[in-house]
Amino acid sequence: MLRNPHSSADACQLAxxxxxxxxxxxxLARRLAAIVTDRVQSDLAAQGIVDLRPAHLRVFAALGHxxxxxxxxxAERLGSTKQTVGPLVDELVATGYxxxxxxxxxxxxxxxxxxxxxxxAAEAARRSAEGIDGRWADRVGAxxxxxxxxxxxxxxxxxxxxxDDA
Length: 166
Fold this sequence. Notes:
The protein is mostly helical. It is globular. It has a two-stranded antiparallel sheet. Strand 1 (98-103) and strand 2 form a beta hairpin. The chain contains 7 helices and 2 strands. The chain has helices spanning 11-17, 25-46, 54-63, 71-78, 82-94, 116-140, 142-165; strands at residues 98-103, 106-114.
């Protein structure tokens, strides 16, 4: 688990940085997600896209492909709330990555969708993430990576069941 932290002020940071092979799965998953996010942001910055924060990238991923979604749908996909996601969407609209339009099924509701600039940024982020997956497949082998993905998927989908059993 953790090595001996030098100060209690650094304990939170050390908890995420001084991992060992027997660390809890959640800590390893968080670290892996942080590595991917950092790399994607670095790749985007190399392309001149410097104004996207990690939370923005999560909104991009939740919005996915298609004709857009309501903020409540994005929040649901993220396991979050409209109150948390709404300001992120507002930021992305203000920076030109997303736009809003009326929902044809409900004139009171708005659909959030990628703008042309948002499509460029989202595609760049997707290519970066795919490149990371490809490098990891080269490192550990495609079969091991596929097994890891399948195991993580099984755990993610069974997480609610496990919480209910506790």
